[in-house]
Design goal:
It is a single chain. By secondary structure, the chain is mostly helical. It has 18 helices and 6 strands. The protein folds into 3 domains: 134 residues, no CATH class; 152 residues, no CATH class; 113 residues, Helix Hairpins, CATH 1.10.287.70. The strands form 2 sheets. The protein has a 4-stranded antiparallel beta sheet with strand order 1-2-6-5, covered by helices on one side. Strands 3-4 form a two-stranded antiparallel ribbon. It holds the Pfam family Ion_trans. This is TRPV5 protein. It is found in: Membrane. It is a multi-pass membrane protein.
Length: 509
């Protein structure tokens, strides 16, 4: 019951009342430390009150709980060293990482916790010491891997075509070799080494990705843009295309160019995932993901309807015409592709001025140009501009969330020998087996004293000014004498007030 009340208090809107009640309930806890403590009992979702405060974005409760966990090591004047307990924060030994929970939640308030002590210092320590070097090395290794795969595709086994053409539009010159003919020469053996590297890399990708899908869940793993959800889809599809190409090569099945082309496009697009390691490029990957899976997906439904209708109309118009004079609409699939190019203004309106074009072509093309080019494309640009504006206001915290997600991912993937645990063990200071992060803080203890000095200067100047004004009012001298006395009074007042103010500073020092 007490643990349930603690979880409810974390969700209370009155945060001051919640903090006081939280302390009151813990004061009656008999097991204040150890696994039986109320603070360590998780709810049905596996969240302790501390983790729940982070997921809900309750910064007041989070800071309150962190103040209870900190240990003042020493202080000397304005300098102080504090040990913060990072037992539940550090993802090194946690199955359900606190950092991963924060970046995977949809609440923006939760991402603000990444800028609080000691989370900010812990993430910065992990990223600068281990995360950034490993991530840059992984990016370089992946680019070299993609270069190897691309060279294997460029020099894939082909042979000249031997059979006769059956159509005047058939333009095929080379065909794929059979398996027995593909690995004969020395160049083929060199290509075989690159192909083996490519296949091994695809298997490694699947082995690393599948456990995370089972642990986190497909919907959450692929749906969170900060966790790199779309890029996980891309890299898994790429690995599957590599395996499909390998099976087609081993069985001498024609048509390997289809999965090979998809693999090349997906593999090189996945290079954008490594832009999250740089503050200048990281937010742009978020923008691209939100535009593709938000604005562009909605727009594609409208575009498909328009293209389907106008492509059918163009095909019907040119169905009775000679395809040799105007071949852009000679069959229905070609009409769809040509209309798609017209929609994106990739090509101009196809026309052959040596022959007479149907009258309805001009009418339909006029309507298509108005709807597609002027209306729908400008609508897409406006939608993307709005998305860019929204993401640009959050780009700093989005990049920090990307860094946290990348750090947690690398910490889980790499062996423990390459990524030691961050922080200091509490046994060094007699604090048990908990782990702490040492943070040095600089606090100016004379802040209130400086405010008193400022008020002293202001009060003395105001008193002298009031006395001088009374003297000036009582004097019946001429205007010249008043001006001269005011000038001399202001000089003596400033000199006297400054002298007394500096005397206060010297005496307190």
């Amino acid at each position: 019951i007490g643990n349930t009340v603690l979880h409810i208090l974390v969700l209370q809107p009155n945060k001051t009342f919640a903090c006081h009640m939280y302390s009151l309930i813990l004061s009656y806890d008999r097991n204040k430390e150890g696994p039986g403590s109320l603070e360590l009992i998780p709810n049905n979702e596996g969240l302790s009150p501390f983790k729940l405060a982070g997921v809900e974005g309750n910064t007041v409760m989070f800071q309150y709980l962190m103040q209870k966990r900190k240990q003042n090591l020493w202080s000397f004047g304005p300098l102080s060293t504090v040990l913060y307990d990072i037992t539940e924060i550090d993802s090194w030994a946690e199955d359900q990482s606190f950092l991963e929970l924060i970046v995977s939640t949809k609440k923006r308030e939760a991402r603000q916790i990444l800028d609080l002590t000691p989370v900010k210092e812990l993430v910065s320590l992990k990223w600068n010491m281990y995360g950034r070097p490993y991530f840059c090395f992984l990016a370089l290794f992946y680019i070299l891997y993609m270069v190897c795969f691309t060279m294997c595709c460029v020099y894939r086994p082909l042979k000249p075509r031997t059979d006769n053409r059956t159509s005047s539009r058939d333009n095929t010159v080379y065909v794929q070799k059979m398996l027995q003919e593909s690995y004969v020469a020395y160049e083929d053996e060199l290509r075989l080494v690159g192909e083996l590297i490519t296949v091994i890399g695809a298997v490694v990708i699947l082995v690393l990705e599948i456990p995370d899908i089972l642990r986190v869940g497909a919907a959450k793993y692929f749906g969170q843009t900060i966790l790199g959800g779309p890029f996980h889809i891309i890299v898994i599809t790429y690995a599957c295309m590599i395996l499909v190409t390998m099976v087609m090569r081993l069985t001498s099945t024609t048509g390997e160019v289809v999965p090979m082309s998809f693999a090349l496009v997906l593999g090189w697009c996945n290079v954008m995932y490594f832009a999250r390691g740089f503050q200048m490029l990281g937010p742009f990957t978020i923008m691209i993901q939100k535009m593709i899976f938000g604005d562009l997906m909605r727009f594609c439904w409208l575009m498909a309807v328009v293209i389907l209708g106008f492509a059918s109309a163009f095909y019907i118009i040119f169905q009775t015409e000679n395809p040799e004079n105007l071949g852009q609409f000679y069959n229905y699939p070609m009409s769809l592709f040509t209309t798609f190019e017209l929609f994106l203004t990739i090509i101009d309106g196809p026309a052959n001025y040596d022959v007479d074009l149907p009258f309805m072509y001009s009418v339909v093309y006029f309507a298509f140009a108005i709807i597609a080019t002027l209306l729908m494309l400008n609508l897409l640009i406006a939608m993307m501009g709005d998305t860019h504006w929204r993401v640009a206001h959050e780009q700093d915290e989005l990049w920090r969330a990307q860094v946290v997600a990348t750090t947690v991912m690398l910490e889980r993937k790499l062996p423990r020998c390459l990524w030691p645990r961050s922080g200091i063990c509490g046994r060094e200071f007699g604090l048990g087996d908990r782990w702490y992060l040492r943070i040095e803080d600089r606090v100016d203890p004379n802040k209130h004293k400086i405010m008193r000095y400022t008020e002293a200067f202001k009060v003395q100047d105001r008193d002298h000014y009031d006395k001088g004004s009374e003297k000036l009012e009582t004097n019946g001298d001429t205007l010249c004498k008043k001006e001269m006395s005011a000038l001399s009074l202001s000089r003596s007042t400033s000199r006297t007030s400054s002298h007394r103010g500096w005397e206060i500073l010297r005496r307190n020092t």
